[in-house]
Amino acid sequence: MAAADAIAITIDLGGTQFRVAAVSQQGEMLARIAGRSQADAEPSVVIRDLIAAVTRVRHEVAGRAVLGLGIAAPGPIDESARVVLIAPNFPRWRDIPLADELERATGLPAYLGNDANLAGLGEHRYGAGRGVRNMVYLTVSTGIGGGIIVENKLLLGERGAAGEAGHMQISFNGPPCSCGNRGCLEAYASGHGLANQAREAIAGGTSTSLAEIDGPVTAIHIARAAEAGDPFARDLVTGAGRALGVGVRNLIHIFDPAIVVIGGGVSQMGPLLWNPMREVVQAEPYAAFQGSARVEAAALKDDCGLAGAAVMVFEPEAAGMKPRVHAA
Predict the structure, then answer these.
(1) CB atoms within 10 A of CB 200
(2) How many whole angstroms separate alpha carbon 143 and alpha carbon 195?
């Protein structure tokens, strides 16, 4: 049995920045650093930066036993092969054996998982879902991803791709989604989807203050315009909230969770997004599911991926993995 003061070193790799932390078994962030992700560089450059950051964090917690290295990475992951298949925003990444590379370089047993899945695992163990057995986590950000916890374990599915809630289709004739389908939840409620809808409306002559923006319209612009009272922007955010409500209701029907936890940058748009989402969820007509799940904001905010990567080290079985022996 591991010592109670043993820790995990964790990595949350994003397209803009990466973060590395030392995390206790109670979920406390003991040390952390952040760096810019050189997303357009060769994978070896990014891996070099990660190794240097892990070394710095280990130096900050010198004297503490480190059980392993947990890595939260974007995109499809082959967990059994410990490979990042494709990473959004990293154009040169194809079939990168990230866990093996970092394990060899650091001497630590390395575990690799999808960032959205691990964010859900982190919220379950240390955040808003603490104490429940069944939970759904949604991250509503540039895209929409998720993590499904069933009986205290992360649901991976046959190919490790479970939890891609952003690509549930909520309309046959909705806006196009980046996946190639139409009417996906992500096309309505993600930052990318909101921006696409706004640009299309502006091109069609819709009257909105967003048309005056110099450069591409983003979800941040839409949120600010909605707060300032722009009718089109408010309708767009309200529509995203209703779409999100439909998605949450679908997930409640499928998984019957105790709680649905929602995080990510777009989820921070406030009542204009949350109120219509809650109205749709609470209007559930099926008696068996009326009020069956709480819907709450993520508690860990930006730390949920780092926390979930730590759970993967401390409890690999909960993440659908086998414990690894020490690599040193």
Answers:
(1) 12
(2) 11
